[in-house]
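Suppose you are handed a protein chain with no further information: no name, no annotation, nothing but its sequence. What can you learn? This example shows the usual starting point.
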Amino acid sequence: MISVIVPEVTPRIEYTLEFISTYTGIRFKASTFPLPGNHYTICYDGQPYGIAFHMYPDGLLSKTGIELICPEVKTDEQSGLPYFFASNHGDFQFDIFAFTFYLLSRYEEYSSEAPRDKHNRFPAKASLAFRHSFLDIPLIDQWLDLFMQRLSTYFGHDFLNERARIPSPEIVLTYDIDFPWAFKHRSLASNLAGIVKDLFHGEWIHLRQRFGYLFGIYPDPYDNYGQMLNTQYEHLQQIVFFLMRGGGDFDRNHHVNHPAFKALVRRLQSSFKAGIHISYKATEKGYPQILKEKMALEELLKKAVHKNRAHFLRIKLTETYQSLLEAGITEDYTMGYSHLSGFRSGTAQTHYWFDLSKNKSTKLSITPLIFMDTTYIHHYDNVPTNKTQEILEGLIKQVELHHGRCCILWHNNHLSGQDPRYKEWFNLYKWSATRISTLSRST
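A reasonable first move is to predict its three-dimensional structure. Written in structure tokens, the prediction is:
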């Protein structure tokens, strides 16, 4: 155990030290006085204490409110890693505790001055990580490794050996079912309207697929559940998130009471874990709509639902996460950006959400979403699949290196090996499933 002497034990300090304890495999215990019989002590105060390792606090962890903070980012000459909350005092060059809390809590996203996109999301390019080129690495994890090396040297004890007991890395393969079928189980009027829309927008491939399906030549291009069911590996955890029809332009999937949709849910739940994919509308309306959609899925599954990912990766801090907890959701898989891959919260570790508005830790676990297919298929359609594979491989290696637990996301409508637009992406999907199945995590 490493004791951390602080002027006051605050919720932010406890939350940060709990995360560091989980990551390092070593208990960090905050106290306002030296603990008896402990040989490893950090003094997290403005004044040093005896021979304790001295960490000079920035002050963020002793505060309770939300302020506009614009950290000055510097680069460490030896490691090349960026850092902020620098200090000219103490035995470490910056306040790694405040640094960890700032990134992990997504502090920068709470400010009323933070930019928003057309869907009212915090955009990746506004983040500190993108602007200083560390979105593609779990910066917290990398700095914690260096911090533990520094403590090992200072105390003459190899703390890094404790990481050997940390569970193996895991990447969860997840699916969002936004549109169960393209044409199947839709009325003739709906398909006729679709034909007009395809003609108007020049969607010739989609038009050919529609006619092919209607005349019994081609299967529905979104009905790729056989491919999903065939992607089964011993160590591969998979979760399917079902979108409940919220209404409006962004939630136009099949009705949850449609017999075919009910049958699909029952078919997939036998092989996959299931979660709710709260609608675009639910993020806007909050708890009542979230609870309504969760209860509708629970009725189909005949069991409780505790996992969620928001449609469009659309979350409002703090309202969405507070509503999820109130509705009984304990696991969220939304923490990623729609337009860029990487580590949005600065870590490859599943961690708990800290509610800054109430200044307290919660029991909502956040699994980082590090890769999504539509990022490259739609937002960056000039990125070839071989380059996308390189990007994904780099992210996977970071998760391996730091024994993390993250998730990647594919949509059922991109898993057609017959659709010429998505054939190469289907091959990349198969590669990704095989690749992450080589990671095993002890439980």
